[in-house]
Design goal:
With 161 residues, the chain is of the alpha+beta class. The chain has 6 helices and 4 strands.
Length: 161
């Protein structure tokens, strides 16, 4: 709630800055709006981390629940987990690990359409991982493919935002 309130406040300040004719006032309003917008982002990140921790506290590294996160947050969490599993795979001299990713089916999303799952599928495909879909979850097969890891672009750099 705090992040949402800060975002609304920042948006109101951006709007007021756009509407004012005074250059000095405009500058003050834009500066304050950017400051509050950054506070909102930090509050949102903190909330996302708390939600993720709460939902995943009893899980091992091979399972993660993305319920309650926005799409960008969910993608970031999966990217982080993939990095951990890729390192683990290499250290343990293994060829395959499975990762269960609970994305949800989109029942609580606008239009009752899944928003996280398609992005996670795109991420996994981009990184060259096979995966199976089962309703609101995915099973990703993390393989030890060092050659492609060093050459790949970050998913966020190619994903339309």
């Amino acid at each position: 709630k705090n992040a949402r309130a800060l975002t609304h406040k920042a948006n109101a300040l951006f709007k007021a800055a756009k509407a004012t004719s005074s250059r000095e006032e405009k500058q003050k309003l834009y500066t304050k709006a950017r400051q509050i917008s950054n506070e909102a982002k930090l509050a949102n990140l903190k909330t996302a981390n708390e939600i993720f921790q709460c939902r995943n506290s009893g899980y091992e590294q091979d399972k993660m629940d993305l319920h309650g996160l926005f799409v960008k947050e969910a993608v970031s969490k999966v990217e982080d987990r993939l990095e951990i599993l890729e390192e683990d795979l290499s250290k343990r001299n293994m060829n395959l690990l499975r990762l269960l990713i609970i994305t949800g089916s989109g029942h609580h999303s606008e239009g009752k359409k899944a928003r996280i799952k398609p992005e996670i599928c795109a991420l996994l495909s981009h990184r060259g991982y096979d995966f199976d879909e089962d309703g609101g979850q995915l099973i990703a097969y993390i393989t030890n493919n060092k050659a492609s890891v060093s050459k790949r672009k970050p998913f966020s750099a190619i994903s339309p935002a």
